[in-house]
Request: fold
Amino acid sequence: MELDFQNFFLPVILFAFVMSATPGPNNIMLTASGANYGFRRSIPHMLGITFGFLSLISAVAAGLGAVFMAWPPLQTALKVAGSLYLCYLAWRIATAEPGSASTQGSGRPLTFLEAALFQYANPKAWIMAISAVSAFTAGGDTYVATAIGVALTCSLVNLPSISLWAGFGVAIGRILETPRAWRWFNRTMGALTAACVLLIVLD
Reply:
C-alpha cells in the first residue's frame, strides 16, 4: 500500500517531534553532555538514543509491547532497572569535572551502546513507542507497512529533535565561566535526571 503524507506521515511527524523535543531523561542528559563535552563528543550519545529507540519501537510493533503490558513482573523489572540506572547517570552528571568540554577531565559522555540500551529502561521511550504503534498502525495486510513507516519516521524525526538539546547545552557551557558555576550546573542537571525516577515510580 502507499502511505499518504497528509493522512499518515504528517501526524506521525508531529507526534514524534512533540514527544522527542519535550523534556525527558534523554534530553536532560544531552543538555548536560553538550555543556560538559561539546556537541561533537555527544554525537555517539545522540545516535545511540535514535538507534536504540528504533530497535525499541520495532520490538513493540513485533509484539513486545503487548507482552510488556500483559506481564506485570516485566514492568516491575524494567522500573527497577530504569530507576537504578537513572540514579547512576544522575551521579555521573552531578560529579562531572567542571569545564570538561574544553579540558581532558576524567568524565566522558555516554557511549552509543549505553544510550541505546537505556531506551529499554526509559519510561518516556516506552510510552512513545507503544502510543505510536497503537495510534498509527493499521490492521490486516497493511500492518507491516504502517509499522515500518511509523518506526522509521519517528526515528528520523528523533535525531534532529534531540540534537537541539545538545546544542542548547553547548550554548549554556559557553556562559559558565567559573568552576563554581559549572559545579552548580552539573549538580542541577544531575538532580533533574534523578527526578526522572518519579516518572518510573509513579507510572
Residues 5-201 form one domain. Residues 100-105 have pLDDT under 50 and may be disordered. The chain has one domain: 5-201. Residues 98 and 181 are 8 Å apart (CA to CA).
